[in-house]
Structure formats: C-alpha cells, structure tokens
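Fig. S4 source data, part A: sequence.
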Amino acid sequence: MSPYWQSYWYQVMCTEDRNPGWKPLHCGPLHQVPNKSLVTGALADWVVPVLEDAADEIDWISGEIRIDCYTEAVPAPGTPPYLSSETREVPRISYYLPSSEAEQGSETKFHDGLS
C-alpha cells in the first residue's frame, strides 16, 4: 500500500472510423477522479462503469473510446497515461426516417445525422 494518498485525473479519448487517431473527446482540463470512489475501490475498477456510461451518452461518432488516467492534473505533453482503459466500441445511432410511399414506393431511408 502506498504511504500517501494519490489523486488521479482522467479524460475520455476517441478515435472515429472516418477520422482515425486518438484524441480527447472534449477540450479543456482533465477531470479529477472522485476521491470517494478511490476510497472504496481501485482506479481500474472505477474506470469500467465510467467508460460504459460515456459510451451510452455518445451518439454522434462511430468508432472507439477509452479513458486515460494520469497522476497529474496537467501532465507534460507526451506523458503516457498512468492507466488506459480497455477500448469500447461506439456505433453511431442512425435515426429511422420512413419515406412516404408516394415519393419512394415502399423504400425505407435512414438518416445518419450528418446531413
């Protein structure tokens, strides 16, 4: 066990099918991992449900996400994460738009939210 309390900070990273390469999902400072979560469990355990919640809330990308955790609130550029979660696939949700039968016969169209 560590002789002192260690705080952690995290960011959600994403890579999109249309634009590959890992990048932060949101700009701005890293978020602090809640200390109360670390009192009752390990950092690796905390990451799992947070990753699932993030994946459930994201519907505008098609790709993968992960959570990178650091031991500093502002890590130096190029600092590797202390812990990187497993990746989680995020399929973009398509919005179903039935076309009128008079316009398109019995054809069905899907809207991907991009146009």
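Fig. S4 source data, part B ends here. The mean pLDDT is 79.
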